[in-house]
């Protein structure tokens, strides 16, 4: 009963004082954007056939998507500090909608790759603005509110990939991506209508000045910020490598149908719907170090088991173990949001996420190269090793003085 009462109190805090509709709109938009991005892995087998792509090149396509999703985060953060989160998030949704239209009409690999990059870029305008506006709305509940928002992202990643897989198998692959266009248009309109009108900040004129750049760099050189950024990078390279080619691995190595692989892939994110709010709440209560340890142990075991197990239900269990790593983002991003000074929060988060996500974007193409050379299974053992190193690094983080 105490747990139920605690959950009810948390829900009241998040929904009360007129903040609930704002959070629901932001979180829903994030769910649609991430759902769009995670359609790509389930379409890879179809794209390989249509455009004659090797596993390495298919991995590079996913890398282009992640790279686009990284490069826009710094300008997105700067613009969020200077102008309006409402404007930046709305623009991002419409950019993704237009880019998808170009992808489904693509007749050559060049157009496919370029427009995929724009899908990532449009999506990258959203996350920093999302974090900064949530930190303003929930100054004392950033972990829980961000956890809920990220859980909605996982809900989108749970719902949309299997729908896309079914449409691609039953109709054509373009239908598996194109059905997201009207949803993204609705997201853009909703953000513009529901979120409050904001005015540019008075200090925004020197956003990119040398003095401000030195100030931002000085703030970000704090030891714990740099350390947590490196942990975030290790998480991102593992997550992107795993998700980018996991449906292809299930089809080509484990012998599953494309539809079944899409369903199992969606179960990975379905677990994240539960994990991320719990991880965000754990950050609020027990701190970064303990919360990260809780969510990273299971993935090491799950990734290590993948090469040696067979059968749908055993793979479901291993996938569920791996899925707890989804809570890592809610923890590290909540820590960074709390640690960075408010006047440079968007810019600082943009710098950190751009660096970590850009470096992490090499994961899928490297992983695809291993798979092309017959080392698909060994790639997952390598990812397990990376997460084991991440756990050892996490042990160096200081415990909070109080919970």
Give a topology summary.
Elements: H1 2-15, H2 20-37, H3 39-51, H4 55-71, H5 73-82, H6 85-104, H7 109-137, H8 142-170, H9 173-178, H10 180-194, H11 210-220, H12 223-252, H13 258-305, H14 312-323, H15 327-339, H16 345-360, H17 362-372, H18 376-394
Helix pairs in contact: 2-7, 2-8, 2-10, 3-8, 3-12, 4-7, 4-16, 4-17, 5-7, 5-16, 6-7, 6-10, 7-16, 8-13, 8-15, 12-13, 12-15, 12-16, 12-17, 12-18, 13-14, 13-15, 13-18, 17-18
Give a summary of the structure in a few sentences.
This is MFS transporter. The chain contains 18 helices and no strands.
Keywords, separated by commas or semicolons:
single chain, 403 residues, Growth Hormone, Chain: A, 18 helices, globular
What does it look like?
The protein has a single domain (11-195, 205-394), classed as Growth Hormone, Chain: A (Up-down Bundle), CATH 1.20.1250. The protein has helices spanning 2-15, 20-37, 39-51, 55-71, 73-82, 85-104, 109-137, 142-170, 173-178, 180-194, 210-220, 223-252, 258-305, 312-323, 327-339, 345-360, 362-372, 376-394. 82% of the residues lie in helices and 0% in strands. The chain contains 18 helices and no strands. α5 (73-82) packs antiparallel against α16 and α13 (258-305) packs across α14. The radius of gyration is 20 Å and the shape is globular. Mean pLDDT is 81; it is low at 202-206. The chain is mostly helical. The longest helix has 48 residues, at 258-305.
């Amino acid at each position: 009963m105490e747990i139920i009462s605690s959950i009810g109190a948390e829900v009241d805090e998040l929904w009360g004082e007129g903040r609930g509709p704002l959070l629901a709109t932001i979180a829903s938009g994030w769910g649609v954007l991430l759902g769009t991005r995670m359609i790509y892995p389930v379409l890879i087998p179809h794209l390989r056939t249509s455009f004659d792509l090797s596993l390495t090149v298919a991995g590079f396509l996913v890398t282009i998507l992640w790279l686009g999703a990284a490069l826009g985060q710094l300008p997105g953060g700067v613009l969020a500090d200077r102008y309006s989160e409402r404007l930046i998030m709305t623009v991002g949704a419409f950019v993704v909608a237009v880019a998808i239209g170009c992808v489904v009409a693509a007749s050559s690999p060049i157009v496919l790759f370029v427009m995929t990059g724009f899908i990532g870029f449009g999506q990258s305008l959203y996350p920093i603005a999302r974090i900064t506006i949530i930190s303003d709305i929930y100054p004392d509940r950033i972990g829980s509110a961000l956890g809920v928002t990220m859980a909605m992202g996982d809900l989108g990643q749970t719902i949309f990939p299997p729908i896309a897989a079914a449409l691609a198998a039953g109709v054509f692959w373009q239908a598996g991506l194109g059905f997201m266009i009207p949803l993204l248009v609705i997201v853009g309109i909703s953000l513009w209508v529901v979120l409050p009108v904001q005015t540019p900040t008075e200090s925004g004129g020197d956003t990119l000045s040398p003095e401000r750049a030195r100030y931002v760099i000085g703030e970000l050189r704090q030891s714990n910020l740099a350390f947590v950024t490196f942990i975030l990078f290790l998480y991102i390279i593992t997550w992107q490598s795993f998700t980018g080619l996991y449906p292809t691995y299930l089809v080509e190595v484990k012998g599953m149908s494309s539809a079944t692989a899409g369903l199992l892939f969606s179960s990975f994110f379905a677990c994240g719907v539960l994990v991320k709010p719990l991880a965000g709440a754990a950050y609020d209560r027990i701190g970064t170090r303990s919360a990260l340890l809780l969510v990273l142990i299971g993935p090491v075991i799950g990734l290590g088991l993948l090469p040696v197990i067979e059968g749908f239900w055993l793979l479901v269990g291993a996938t569920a173990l791996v899925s707890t790593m989804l809570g890592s983002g809610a923890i590290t991003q909540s820590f960074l949001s709390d640690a960075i000074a408010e006047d440079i929060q968007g810019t600082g988060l943009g710098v950190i996420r751009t660096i970590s996500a850009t470096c992490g974007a090499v994961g899928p193409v490297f992983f695809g190269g291993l798979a092309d050379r017959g080392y698909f299974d060994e790639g997952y053992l390598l990812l397990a090793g990376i997460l084991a190193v991440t756990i050892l690094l996490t042990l160096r983080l200081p415990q909070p003085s109080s919970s």
